[in-house]
Design goal:
By secondary structure, the chain is of the alpha+beta class. The protein has one domain. It has 2 helices and 5 strands. A 5-stranded antiparallel sheet has the order 1-4-2-3-5, sandwiched between helices. A hairpin with a 2-residue loop joins strand 2 and strand 3. 20% of the residues are buried. The C terminus is likely disordered.
Length: 104
């Protein structure tokens, strides 16, 4: 996946109301939803950064590491969760962006 394709993905989400991680950091006291491209993975989830384990700052792949430290991420977006009582968690998928026209 090229940097250009990742940037286009981020811009599409920003047009839908998401905030780019490079422009704005998520609050630590509210439930946020996020998508981050990190080491070939698309990592999505929900968390309250202030409720995460502080030592996770150094643990690769954790919400603290990805959203606060931002170490090694290609790009990412976040937004406040519409349901502040929603379940927290994280999902990791291989980063593959399909071409909508060709179906590749």
């Amino acid at each position: 996946m090229s940097e250009y394709e990742i940037t286009q993905w981020r811009k599409r989400l920003e047009r839908k109301g998401w905030l780019g991680l490079s422009r704005s950091s998520p609050p630590i006291d509210k439930l946020v939803e996020y998508h981050v491209v990190w080491q070939g993975w698309l990592i999505s989830g929900r968390c309250v950064l202030g409720k995460e384990i502080k030592d996770d700052w150094w643990e690769p792949g954790t919400p603290q590491y990805l959203l606060s430290r931002k170490h090694g991420i290609s790009d990412g977006v976040w937004r406040l969760a519409k349901d502040q009582q929603a379940e927290v968690g994280q999902v990791r998928r291989a980063w593959v962006l399909k071409n909508k026209r060709s179906g590749e």
